[in-house]
Inverse folding.
């Protein structure tokens, strides 16, 4: 039975499409819409876990990732 684990997805506009990034594993993808970029990132993560050995996963995995907003004075 496959186990399910949650990961972070950061999606931003990039040119005419969207770029998606999983910061825990430094894996990225893209798509023409937010939903497509998200789904393509999920596929990229699934493919990574299919081919990566446990040592590679352990070396790439960042277990503490924090996403927050910052307030910065400009000018």
């Amino acid at each position: 039975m496959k186990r399910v684990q949650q990961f972070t997805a950061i999606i931003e506009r990039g040119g005419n499409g969207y770029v998606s990034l999983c910061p825990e594993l430094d894996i990225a993808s893209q798509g023409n819409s937010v939903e497509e970029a998200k789904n393509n990132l999920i596929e990229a993560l699934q493919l990574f876990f299919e081919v990566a050995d446990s040592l590679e996963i352990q070396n790439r995995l960042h277990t503490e990732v924090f996403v927050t907003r910052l307030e910065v004075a400009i000018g």
Summary: The domain at 1-75 is CATH 3.30.160.250 (Double Stranded RNA Binding Domain). The chain has one domain: 1-75.
